[in-house]
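Input chain follows. Return structure tokens only.
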Amino acid sequence: MAEDVLPKEERGRYPLIPVVRAYIAHLKATPEIPVGNLDPAQERARKDRALAISAEIKNDIATGRVVLIDDAITIMTGGLSRVRNKILSLASRVAPRLVMQREAVPIRALLYDELVAILEELSVEHDVQRLAGDGAGREAA
């Protein structure tokens, strides 16, 4: 409100009826948005915020800082399937070499070496896929 809109009687004291009338006049002079109608300025600001958020998300996807959930599920499912298949094939690959073993130490060493080989192979596959996928998903949306 502007200065000197409310009448004063003395410092810090205001007459009740003239102050109420001035306040009512102020409310009538202030444009009010009818119930059910939207304020264009507020709606424009809300739209601008939504567009800014959308642009940030698209930029994050384009720069690789975020991934789409469907892409993440596909990548994880593929990776876990490879791990599962490698581990399940371990028994049939190692069994023929374990048949003649009588002591636990060589069996343990053989199994340990095979598991390390599987993990190294999966690690190399992951590195190759990661390097090959660095440009994936970076097209302009």
